């Protein structure tokens, strides 16, 4: 039994065209646009950095001048505090040693030249 010979043929109307072209989606801005954007951002950053440095310099200058103007007041306050503490210490010493005859508050307790320092060393 022999079947009749039948040749394989394309479909009527032909085959679909072969898609050989690349169909890539849009992948973002080009290199020049990115470079321009980065340049703009960096320029703005340097501008802000310059403004910040100017402000920091001004604050440092202001702090220095405020310290210069406050030093005499702080020294006077320290001197007043030292004087007040010395007077309070003398008053406490006077109160504590009131029963000791010949005690003078504020005087040195070292009555011997031996304890007065290098200049007055007594050689034995």
TrEMBL record:
Membrane-spanning ranges: 29-47
Main location, first listed in the record: mitochondrion
UniProt subcellular location: Mitochondrion inner membrane
Superkingdom as given in the UniProt entry: Eukaryota
One family name in Pfam for this protein: GRIM-19
Keyword Magnesium found: no
Cellular component terms (Gene Ontology): mitochondrial inner membrane; respiratory chain complex I
Keywords: Electron transport, Membrane, Mitochondrion, Mitochondrion inner membrane, Respiratory chain, Transmembrane, Transmembrane helix, Transport
InterPro entries tied to this protein: GRIM-19
Keyword match Repressor: no
Entry membrane topology: Single-pass membrane protein
Family (UniProt): Belongs to the complex I NDUFA13 subunit family.
Function per UniProt: Complex I functions in the transfer of electrons from NADH to the respiratory chain. Accessory subunit of the mitochondrial membrane respiratory chain NADH dehydrogenase (Complex I), that is believed not to be involved in catalysis.
Protein name: NADH dehydrogenase [ubiquinone] 1 alpha subcomplex subunit 13
Species annotation: Athelia psychrophila
């Amino acid at each position: 039994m022999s079947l009749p010979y039948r040749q394989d043929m394309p479909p009527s109307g032909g085959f679909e065209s072969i898609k050989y072209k690349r169909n890539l989606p849009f992948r973002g801005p080009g290199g020049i646009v990115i470079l321009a954007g980065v340049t703009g951002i960096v320029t703005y950053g340097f501008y802000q950095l310059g403004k910040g440095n100017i402000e920091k310099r001004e604050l440092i200058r202001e702090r220095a001048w405020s310290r210069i103007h406050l030093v005499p007041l702080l020294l006077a306050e320290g001197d007043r505090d030292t004087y007040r503490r010395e007077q309070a210490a003398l008053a406490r010493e006077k109160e504590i040693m009131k029963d000791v005859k010949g005690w003078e508050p504020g005087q040195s307790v070292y009555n011997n030249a031996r304890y007065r320092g290098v200049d007055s060393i007594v050689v034995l």
